[in-house]
Amino acid sequence: MSRVPDAVTALKTATPPPPSGAAVVRRPRRVRALGLVISLAVLGAVMAASVLVGSREVEWGDVLSALGGQTEGFGPAAVATRIPRTLVAVLVGAALAVSGAVMQGVTRNPLADPGVLGINMGASLAVVTFIAFVGLSSATTQIWVAIGGAAVAAVFVYTVGSLGRGGATPLKLALAGAATSAALASFISAVVLPRADIGEAARAWLIGGVGGATFTALNQVLPFLLAGFVICLLSAKGLNSLALGDELAAGLGERVALTRGAAALGSVVLCGAATAVCGPIAFVGLVVPHACRLIVGVDHRGLVPFSAVVGAALLTGADVLGRIVARPSEIDVGIITALIGAPVFIWIVRRQKVRAL
């Protein structure tokens, strides 16, 4: 009889403890609902600030006049310019955040981000190259070119990061992305510097910003962003299965290759379309998903839409901050997000326990 307790004790000792993140896969509904309400309130507040704040503040009467179609006078004219800028910031911030969340789920890599992995630099190189040597006839063509460049860069980085023993580890992917991003930046400089006719505009675009947004650009990019959002939302359940590992996901009936390919496609479409409109903006897709996991957990069915709301609020707020700190000039939003995201990236790298999602 004494052997039974010993056997039970040995079994308990041999069974590994559950991962620390298993208990927070899905936060309580009350916590998630409260987080969503607060995030939506913050988003509404920064959108209002984006319309009201600039080189010169305007009043609510100017906003109502602009919404009514009046553009005479500084106030209504400024509001008419800031409304499309605000909407583009909201959509691009949501797109980059969702792209980062899905990319982290596809690669099971907490460091995955369109900027860190060099994907938006691939889109930028494709756009700059076509402008310099081919010429882009329309903004829609520019979006397609950017998506193609982002896809090529994503495949290249993942292939390089998968070489050797251990496959695509977070460290190898981060190193491959950093090296690829540096190389692509050099290629962009080689293309832009000899061309004085496109140099100034290209350099301004490469910083990343939403200052020149218009309703025309918004209408052209909106179908691509909506398609990317739909694909990512439909892939959310499959990403939960991939988090268990490819073998277990396949055992549960998940089509691993199809799920990973579809999710990656949605992520690349969002990143490429956002880059085509605003230039390369880094770290939004890295910071936002990690912050959202603290509130909603790691279930992608809640993480993806929640990341969209928080990403929209972050980029819009960063754009407002860039207008305030350097009045009457502006600091492009790409610089602000880099200042916010770089310390978060270092913090994630220094966390020894973070190896995969």
TrEMBL record:
<protein>
    <submittedName>
        <fullName>Iron ABC transporter permease</fullName>
    </submittedName>
</protein>
<feature type="region of interest" description="Disordered">
    <location>
        <begin position="1"/>
        <end position="24"/>
    </location>
</feature>
<dbReference type="InterPro" id="IPR037294">
    <property type="entry name" value="ABC_BtuC-like"/>
</dbReference>
<feature type="transmembrane region" description="Helical">
    <location>
        <begin position="115"/>
        <end position="136"/>
    </location>
</feature>
<feature type="transmembrane region" description="Helical">
    <location>
        <begin position="205"/>
        <end position="234"/>
    </location>
</feature>
<feature type="transmembrane region" description="Helical">
    <location>
        <begin position="331"/>
        <end position="349"/>
    </location>
</feature>
<feature type="transmembrane region" description="Helical">
    <location>
        <begin position="142"/>
        <end position="161"/>
    </location>
</feature>
<dbReference type="Pfam" id="PF01032">
    <property type="entry name" value="FecCD"/>
</dbReference>
<comment type="similarity">
    <text>Belongs to the binding-protein-dependent transport system permease family. FecCD subfamily.</text>
</comment>
<keyword id="KW-0813">Transport</keyword>
<feature type="transmembrane region" description="Helical">
    <location>
        <begin position="83"/>
        <end position="103"/>
    </location>
</feature>
<dbReference type="InterPro" id="IPR000522">
    <property type="entry name" value="ABC_transptr_permease_BtuC"/>
</dbReference>
<dbReference type="GO" id="GO:0005886">
    <property type="term" value="C:plasma membrane"/>
</dbReference>
<keyword id="KW-1133">Transmembrane helix</keyword>
<keyword id="KW-0472">Membrane</keyword>
<keyword id="KW-1003">Cell membrane</keyword>
<dbReference type="GO" id="GO:0033214">
    <property type="term" value="P:siderophore-iron import into cell"/>
</dbReference>
<keyword id="KW-0812">Transmembrane</keyword>
<feature type="transmembrane region" description="Helical">
    <location>
        <begin position="173"/>
        <end position="193"/>
    </location>
</feature>
<dbReference type="GO" id="GO:0022857">
    <property type="term" value="F:transmembrane transporter activity"/>
</dbReference>
<feature type="transmembrane region" description="Helical">
    <location>
        <begin position="303"/>
        <end position="325"/>
    </location>
</feature>
<feature type="transmembrane region" description="Helical">
    <location>
        <begin position="33"/>
        <end position="53"/>
    </location>
</feature>
